């Protein structure tokens, strides 16, 4: 505790206990602490972008916007202001259980602009929503049809990896090759296979068996990503290219637009917000 006092860091539990929680008009609970460098209007615009239909599922969550969140081995600590040294130790966010709620502390001073801050908040809120409400069958059908059609790219590293695992053809391909090899060996040696074995070989599908666990993870990742991008589009104007990351290829624009339109149908924007997809003319 001496080190904490010397650096000005405070336990996250203390911040949760002493900081007033505000309920936004859409039902989101949030609070601020320290020198966040946020204007009240920008923060309110971001928080209130979450449609009420989504906010209803987040009653057990609160979002605290703080300068820096530091995850030490023993506890989560909050810095009331920014320093370079503390910034090097900080993380973008951390979830903390407090009484009957879960509080997400978001490090505002690690975010370079409104885009980064809003996206960090929306990603967390969308994951919490999916954990509470699951994935609608209609959205699952949509993204799976895109996946089997081999639409280029994805919306996050998690979605990209889980989609790849779900459609991995190696395992079933190996089984088919093993069966074929056994069949050829038996023919060469003159041995006859019984009818049950022949039926077993013919029942192996030509296409790969789907990894259902990975498929479920893919649906959850793609759904939370789509919600976060949709909420971001309600808050600020941004280009498709702003979503690009180095770790994976970004999903093709038409496929992303299809997902976002579906999200907009499921969760209409609150009053004062508008969802639009604009296409830039070439040339």
TrEMBL record:
Highest taxon, organism lineage: Bacteria
Region (Disordered) residue spans: 160-195
UniProt name for this protein: Uncharacterized protein
């Amino acid at each position: 505790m001496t080190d904490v006092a010397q650096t000005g860091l405070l336990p996250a539990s203390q911040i949760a206990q002493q900081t007033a929680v505000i309920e936004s008009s859409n039902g989101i609970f949030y609070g601020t602490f320290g020198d966040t460098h946020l204007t009240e209007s920008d923060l309110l615009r971001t928080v209130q972008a979450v449609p009420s239909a989504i906010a209803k599922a987040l009653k057990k969550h609160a979002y605290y916007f703080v300068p820096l969140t530091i995850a030490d081995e023993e506890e989560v600590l909050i810095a009331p202001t920014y320093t370079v040294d503390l910034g090097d130790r900080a993380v973008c966010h951390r979830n903390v259980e407090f009484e009957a709620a879960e509080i997400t502390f978001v490090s505002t001073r690690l975010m370079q602009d409104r885009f980064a801050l809003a996206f960090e908040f929306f990603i967390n809120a969308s994951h919490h929503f999916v954990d509470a409400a699951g994935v609608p069958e209609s959205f699952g059908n949509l993204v799976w049809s895109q996946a089997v059609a081999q639409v280029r790219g994805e919306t996050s590293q998690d979605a990209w990896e889980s989609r790849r695992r779900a459609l991995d053809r190696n395992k079933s391909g190996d089984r088919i090759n093993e069966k074929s090899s056994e069949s050829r060996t038996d023919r060469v040696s003159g041995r006859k296979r019984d009818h049950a074995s022949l039926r077993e070989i013919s029942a192996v599908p030509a296409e790969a068996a789907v990894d259902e666990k990975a498929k479920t993870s893919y649906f959850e990742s793609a759904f939370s990503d789509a919600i976060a991008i949709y909420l971001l589009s309600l808050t600020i104007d941004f280009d498709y290219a702003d979503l690009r990351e180095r770790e994976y290829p970004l999903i093709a624009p038409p496929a992303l637009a299809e997902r976002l339109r579906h999200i907009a149908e499921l969760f209409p924007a609150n009053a004062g917000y508008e969802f639009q997809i604009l296409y830039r003319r070439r040339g």
